[in-house]
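Model: You mentioned two targets. I'll fold them one after the other.
Researcher: Yes, keep them separate.
Model: Target one:
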Amino acid sequence: MKPRLRIAFASIAIGILVLCLKVGAYLLTGSVALYSDALETIVNIASSIAALAAIWFAAKPADSNHPYGHDKAEYFAAVLVGVMIVLAAIMIFRAAWLGFVQGDRPEYSLEGIAMNLAAALINGAWARYLMHFGRQTRSPALVADGKHLMTDVISSAGVLAGVVLVLMTGWTILDPMLAVVVGLTVLWTGWELVKESVGGLMDEAASSDVLEKIRLLISEHGEGALEAHDLRTRIAGRSTFVDFHLVVPGTMSVEEAHEICDRIEVAIAEDVPGARITIHVEPEHKAKHSGIVVL
């Protein structure tokens, strides 16, 4: 099994473990804030399942219907995770409203507080690893899953502190108020994830650092050519599509021009992981005298 699939499966298993701990904490305390925290974890598990499905589909090789591969499937999963986060926020707001109306006071339970703390620590460690691994392997689905878990950690820490404060002061109004704060935090995270993922679906260009690196590589390894212009890039999951026009002397043979292209392609592929390069060779009279000057 591929590493990214193993990580996705592990994320589901950890989500189930954390859910059990949070439900236990809620049952022991009766806190509506802890209940809202447990509700968000259900969405975490659903998000992890969506990420697993997307990673599996994105790993499929290119075929006649999808000649550029299936990498963008991960962006759909990331959008779905964002939508699920928004749904989680709605469920949390509902739980908070019920807390305001009913005004029940949470019960003190050292075991319940300890269970919620353990769940937050597990989520925190796993979220950091997911984001690190997702960025290393250029997996939008895993990065989105990690960001989602990190918001869960932040909200869990706030909820836990608030529950302890309610138990110490007896101010029951703090419990649903904290649930509202959790809901707002979760809602913001969902919006950020959807916005970022839609950008990927809309073929955003590579970062300015990557573009500058590509320009430098073309300039350094394009010896024999005259210039390069109309450089374009787009990101699709783990792939970075690169295309540009390379101007060569009109008297140059096809074989010589091909050797220059090969040299440039190898250089870019080594420095830009997942690069897919298309070079359009043009004769000297097509030069624009702008763009990338070959050294």
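Model: Target two:
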Amino acid sequence: MHVNDTSQGSSSRPSAEDDAIGRFERLYAEAERGAAEVPWDLAAPHSLLAEWTARVRPDGSGRRAVVVGCGFGRDAEHLTGLGFTTVAFDVSPTAVRAARRRHAGSPVRYEVADLFDPPADWAGGFDLVLESMNVQALPVGLRARATAAVGRLVAPRGMLLVIAAGRRPGDAVDGPPWPLTRAEVESFAAAGLTPGPVEEITAPDGGLRWRAEFHRS
């Protein structure tokens, strides 16, 4: 989840949201102290993003991108390399500070921000929105709100790219994370977006992954 620093009034948020927020900040803070490892701390952008950009070859010149749940910034840096003016945000202030350190001098704007209450100028403000492996990390009760909030970031004639771990309907889930069914991926269209291709991909570990496009007219 991607929300403001918990010093900014966390008592007004639902407890499930607080738990999700705290879990990520604790992990990043422990990793900074050398007491934990962040499983998604990779030396390259997500493979399904890199494959997609190699195939589609999006031209970011004069266009804005936003990375939801940017972590340490690998995906954001990848999009910036394609010419996008990129904003990247995360729930964890510790993660954002680390991203800024790792990519000192980068043109990416790394921010701590609230997906449920983003800056006003972010609404409909991005030609490319990347949601990669974040919504699945939220309690199921927050998923519809988060899905709608992600969709609201997409500009007219813009697109949303969703990358997620997947599951079949009826599969037992012991999250977090809670992998998404195809129907849950397709629900991103509820934010007034037109669905594009929804790819079902078998990961190297044998697990199911989704990569899906949604477009705003």
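Researcher: Noted. Anything on target two?
Model: The mean pLDDT is 89.
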